[in-house]
Every structure is written in structure tokens, then in C-alpha cells.
Amino acid sequence: MSENFTYNDGGRSQYFKGKNAGDCAVRAMAIAMGLDYKDCYNEIAKANAKAGYKKSARDGVFKAVFENVLKEHGWYWCSAPKFIGRKARHNDMPMGNVIASMARHYTAIVDKEIHDTFDCSHKMVYGYYAKR
Length: 132
Description:
Elements (H helix, E strand, L loop, with lengths): L4 E3 L16 H10 L3 H14 L12 H10 L2 E5 L17 E6 L2 E6 L2 E4 L10 E5 L1
Parallel strand pairs: 1-5
Antiparallel strand pairs: 2-6, 3-4, 3-6, 4-5
């Protein structure tokens, strides 16, 4: 386990008992923005339904849907830093709160530390969302 990992379910356990929920976008948003999990869940589920998908945020969410929700909160996309000979990782992210996009996963990174329900520090970061 990485020393830069903190277990954080974003508040999911206050509302749901399941552990494997496919709700990484909701958790990442709740943690990075300091919002209530249920409010984030409802907002993403509503955006998912509006885009023509099922009204749920438990089975993943398409990037375009999630990006639209984040834009409404003033967050924007940034490409991951480029390095010669290696891929960007969580500790390459800027200080502060960001939502990192990884292979089939979103995670909150707070001051270069992963806040999630599992240690995903082995995954490369494709890019991230940050607050303007």
C-alpha cells in the first residue's frame, strides 16, 4: 500500500451499505469538492439520465457526462504532465484538490495524496480536473 493513500468513501457509508458500488465519480467529486455524497450522487445520476443513460451513478459514468457536471461547478480539464521514460502518477499532480482520471477510474487527490476506497497509486494518470 502506498504511503500516499487515505481510505475515504466520500460519505457513501452514510447512505449505502455496499462496498463495490462503481461510484468512483461520485466519491471523487464529494471528496475533492467537500460536498455531501448523496447530493453528488443525485446530480450525476440526473445528468446521466439527461444524457440518455440510466438514472444511476453506481455503474460508472461516461467522461462527457461527468465533465459537464464538473464544469457546472467551475472545474476544468488539464492534461497530465509529460515525462520522458515514465507516465504521470498521483504524486505528479498539483497541490490542492484535484480529480484524477485513470484507466476506468476517477479518484480524488488531495495535496498529492489519494483519497479513495482502495489504493490506486499503481495507475497512471491521464489527466485531471481542477477548480478555476
